[in-house]
């Protein structure tokens, strides 16, 4: 699909989008569009369609309380629908005789955690957590998702996200929120772990002009809301630069991972997209109002750059459980020894998160 933006210098056409989803679209329509683009995931998650997920919920009765018929309501969003999709995949794997477990986590990154490069656990009263050397969340609550009610509980955690009113919105998200669904499968003495990550990014903010989010008569650094806007702009700019660098690297004949792209917490969690083979998609929200023309133009430019990040998606390899268990036990013992001895500042919390992880 294509989108055009008309300005004083003429009309700029953007034709990178796989599909343009109009404002009248339902949540089901949006989910269906994205699910179609990521259909290669079906082999990984062992679920063929959203219909299978709904059918599995209907047969098991696990969807009771979600809607009158035990499945989904039209207003239910992307995370909840994907969670039920993954739950059906887990149930299908279990029916084949595999040992499968589905976990969910949710964290946020804001100006409050920017300096220390950590994040806050939305499932466990804002406990500080981290990202480990393999770019996975560490120290977070990994909630086991056994039924539809568990998926609903996970999705509801987004309501505890940091918000604040601005001149543009009565309730504005003041953080980047990340939800992770992790499916672990044991079959034939080997373990395969697949992740599905959702990033709900805080939007960039203006500090001057008619669309200024804050009081333009005072410094942006005079209020917490202003500092939050600065954090958002810096982190989004850093992500944009990393996407450009990753796209350029992909076009090389023999691309090699460039770890300079993942110096920030946000980009570390996106390492699978920037340096690996994670199937990656982006939904860019734009306004049709002429008043928001500049914001729309910049958002479309951001999406155009993201569209150049082409990955060849591959399922995660299965690894022998004995090897994984031995490695985890070794790391646990090392981290526990450091925690017992004690280290300074944030490193003690980071090591404690390691102990919890292993």
Briefly summarize what is shown:
It contains 12 helices and 12 strands. By secondary structure, it is an alpha+beta fold.
Write the layout of secondary structure elements.
Layout: E1 3-7, E2 10-14, H1 27-37, H2 41-45, H3 50-60, H4 78-95, E3 99-109, H5 111-114, E4 119-121, E5 127-131, E6 137-138, E7 143-144, H6 148-156, E8 163-164, E9 172-173, E10 176-187, E11 190-200, H7 224-250, H8 265-269, H9 271-274, H10 293-306, E12 319-320, H11 321-341, H12 346-357
Antiparallel strand pairs: 1-2, 3-4, 3-7, 3-10, 4-5, 5-6, 8-9, 10-11, 11-12
Helix pairs in contact: 3-4, 4-6, 11-12
Q: β content, as a range?
A: 15-25%
User: What is the β-strand count?
Assistant: 12
Largest sheet: 8 strands, antiparallel
* Helix/sheet category: alpha+beta
Number of helices in the DSSP assignment = 12
Uncertain stretches: 40-70
Comma- or semicolon-separated keywords:
358 residues; alpha+beta; 8-stranded antiparallel β-sheet; 12 helices; 17% strand
Structure overview:
There is one protein chain. With 358 residues, the chain is of the alpha+beta class. It has 12 helices and 12 strands. Strands 3, 4, 5, 6, 7, 10, 11 and 12 form an 8-stranded antiparallel β-sheet that branches. A hairpin with a 2-residue loop joins strand 10 and strand 11. The radius of gyration is 21 Å and the shape is globular. The protein starts with a strand and ends with a helix. About 9% of the residues have low confidence.
């Amino acid at each position: 699909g294509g989108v055009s933006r008309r300005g004083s210098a003429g009309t700029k056409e953007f034709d990178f989008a796989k599909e343009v989803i109009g404002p009248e679209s339902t949540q089901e329509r949006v989910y269906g569009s994205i699910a179609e683009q990521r259909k290669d995931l079906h082999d990984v998650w062992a679920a063929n369609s959203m219909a299978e997920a709904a059918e599995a919920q209907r047969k098991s009765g696990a969807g009771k309380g979600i809607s009158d018929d035990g499945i989904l309501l039209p207003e239910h969003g992307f995370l909840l629908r994907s969670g039920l999709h993954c739950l059906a995949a887990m149930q299908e794997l279990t029916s084949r005789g595999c040992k499968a477990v589905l976990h969910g986590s949710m964290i946020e990154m804001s100006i409050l955690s920017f300096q220390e490069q950590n994040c806050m656990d939305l499932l466990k009263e804002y406990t500080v957590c981290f990202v480990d050397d393999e770019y996975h969340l560490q120290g977070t609550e990994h909630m086991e998702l056994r039924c539809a009610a568990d998926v609903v509980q996970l999705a509801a955690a987004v309501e505890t996200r940091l918000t604040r009113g601005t001149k543009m919105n009565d309730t504005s998200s003041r953080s980047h929120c990340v939800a992770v669904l992790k499916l672990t499968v044991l079959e034939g003495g080997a373990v395969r772990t697949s992740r599905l990550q959702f990033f709900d990014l805080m939007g960039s903010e203006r500090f001057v002009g008619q669309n200024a989010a804050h009081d333009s008569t005072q410094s942006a650094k005079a209020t917490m809301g202003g500092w939050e806007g600065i954090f958002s702009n810096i982190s989004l700019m850093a992500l944009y630069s990393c996407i450009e660098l990753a796209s350029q690297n992909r076009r090389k004949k023999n691309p090699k991972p460039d770890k300079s792209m993942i110096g920030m917490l946000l980009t570390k969690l996106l390492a699978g997209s920037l340096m690996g083979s994670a199937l990656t998609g982006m939904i860019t929200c734009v306004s049709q109002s002429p008043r928001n023309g500049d914001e729309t133009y910049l958002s479309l430019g951001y999406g155009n750059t993201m569209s150049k990040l082409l990955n060849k998606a591959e399922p995660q390899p299965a690894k022998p459980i004995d090897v994984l268990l031995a490695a985890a036990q070794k790391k646990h013992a090392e981290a526990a020894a450091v925690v017992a001895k004690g280290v300074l500042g944030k490193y003690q919390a980071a090591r404690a998160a390691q102990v919890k992880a292993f």
